[in-house]
Amino acid sequence: MAGADTADPAMTGPSPRRGGPRRGAPIWRGLTGALTAGWVVVTTVVVVAQLAAWGSGGEGPGTAAVVGHLGGSALALGAQHVVDRARGTSLSAASAGAGVLGVTAALLWLFWYS
After folding, report:
1. How far apart are CA 82 and CA 33, in angstroms?
2. N or C, which terminus of the chain has less Cβ within 10 Å?
3. CA gap 34, 27 in Å, rounded
4. Distance, CA of 91 to CA of 41 (rounded, Å)
């Protein structure tokens, strides 16, 4: 039985010595996670705006914008899932994170800046 001054190994998590420190990974995961979460929020706003426009007989953002944002958010969520599940600083995490940045650039260019 564990006393008050001992820690249960199952509750303390992995040892920091197993794989070394992850220097840039938390920042990268945080950045791509924030971008993905932001796109989910923007997509929700676009969908609600379109539904409200249809309800009031207005034009709204348009079907292309709704479908584009839904597709972009789905791609970003998939890529972020890979980033979050990767161990350490792996090539798959870096590639998936670059994919989130690419989706962000595409959504900004196609639906907001052009």
Report:
1. 11
2. N
3. 10
4. 28
